[in-house]
Amino acid sequence: MRILITGGAGFIGSALVRHLLQDTTHEVLNLDKLTYAGNLESLASIESHPRYQFLQADIADSQAVSLALAQFQPDAIMHLAAESHVDRSIDGPAAFIQTNIVGTYALLEATRAYWMSLTPERKQAFRFHHISTDEVYGDLHGVNDRFTETTPYAPSSPYSASKAASDHLVRAWQRTYGLPVLITNCSNNYGPYHFPEKLIPLVILNALEGKPLPVYGDGLQVRDWLFVEDHARALFKVVSEGKIGETYNIGGHNEQKNIEVVRAICALLEELAPRKPTGLARYEDLITFVKDRPGHDQRYAIDAGKIERELGWLPQETFASGLRKTVQWYLDNLEWCRHVQDGSYQRERLGADA
User: Fold this and answer.
1) Mean pLDDT across the stretch 318-335?
2) Is 317 assigned a catalytic role?
3) Which residues, other chains included, contact 174 with Cβ-Cβ below 8 Å and sequence gap of 6+?
4) CA-CA distance, 22 to 78, in Å (whole number)?
5) Which of 20, 135, 284, 344 allows an S-S link to 160, with CB 3.0 to 4.6 Å?
6) Interhelix angle for 319-332 vs 199-209, to 10°?
7) Please, what is the angle between helix 62-72 and helix 104-116, to 10°?
């Protein structure tokens, strides 16, 4: 297949691009606007691959997207481009509305025009795979509840509301226009190349520098953690084997309280990075509880039974094995982290092909 990936320089997108090029025989066009979250250094291992192309473009730029579709002639589109940080959406929701809603609309319209131009055989085989989040469901209150594919939407933040809107647009374009779509909603991802403002990399890097490890509220918020490489494998499984019009929830089967995650990172650092900043006795001593963020969901948990039953996907990593790999990766790739923290990754990418 020829697969166009939007947002392929982001955290999940780059993991998907690396998986497709390293573990399959498919061709990839990575279309990414390169906002702050897009990092071409995350793709250094495959940037010269003969089956890989990169195009810097905005999904809301219909002309650029239409030209890319006409030239690359994809058999599938995997749509990951999104603004995705809850705290940023609270501080500045406009970018989330523009990218996640307006951008998805523009991409759907360009895709529909392209799809209509295909031969009957290619038209039938084409897929538009929209990658979304479990946050569209709001939060859970019962300790045994899980999000299923039929859980009503109840988004809490500007981010999750904008993603819910994009999900509805994708379904409407199938219902109204017949566009062959697939939707996946995933739980919290973690792993290598995660942007350092997110919880797990932030805790690792702050701990190494002897800085406070901020934990919102009481730290008892529960998340289902999914190793990003497991997610990439699931996404490819869905786009290649999923049933048109279906939604698949992707979870890691790893529910953890935020405070437990932070303590587990501290324990791994005691083992893997025992030389601490001067004057620090234990990494755990850096844990600092801070004011909870507005509208903070208490618990997410995914019922990933459907994708297991219908497509045979299960995560390969436990939380313990995935977290160990993640902490070790950050310890081995501090230069990548420094480039993000000092902004040099953005200056270096200005020479990228547009």
Assistant:
1) 97
2) no
3) 180, 181, 244, 245
4) 17
5) 135
6) 50
7) 40
Please say if 284 is a catalytic residue: no
- Ordered DSSP codes for 218-255: TS--EEEEEEHHHHHHHHHHHHHHPPTT-EEEE--S-E
Instruction: Give me the sign of the Cα torsion angle 343, 347, 348, 350.
Output: positive
Q: For residue range 67-78, list pLDDT tens digits in order.
A: 999 999 999 999
Q: With 50 as the cut, is the pLDDT of residue 352 above it?
A: no
From the candidates 58, 83, 134, 224, which is the catalytic residue?
134
Q: Is the pTM of this model over 0.85?
A: yes
Interstrand relation of 127-133 and 181-186 (parallel, antiparallel or unpaired): parallel
Six token digits for residue 77: 């589109």
Give yes or no for a contact between 42 and 201, defined as CB atoms under 8 angstroms apart: no
Determine which one of 114, 159, 190, 248 is catalytic: 159
Q: Of 32, 135, 139, 297, which residue is the catalytic one?
A: 135
Is 159 in the active site? yes
Domains assigned to the chain: 2-195+225-255+298-318 (3.40.50.720)
What would the two tokens of residue 20 be? Answer: 């497709």
Kindly state the helix (H) or strand (E) to which residue 38 belongs, with its residue range.
Answer: none
Spatial separation of the C-alpha atoms in residues 47 and 12, rounded to whole Å: 16
**Cross-strand partners of 314:** none
d(CA 55, CA 99): 17
- Dist CA 261 CA 255 (whole Å): 10
In whole angstroms, give the CA distance from residue 217 to residue 292. 4
> At residue 137, what are phi and psi to the nearest 5 degrees?
-85, -5
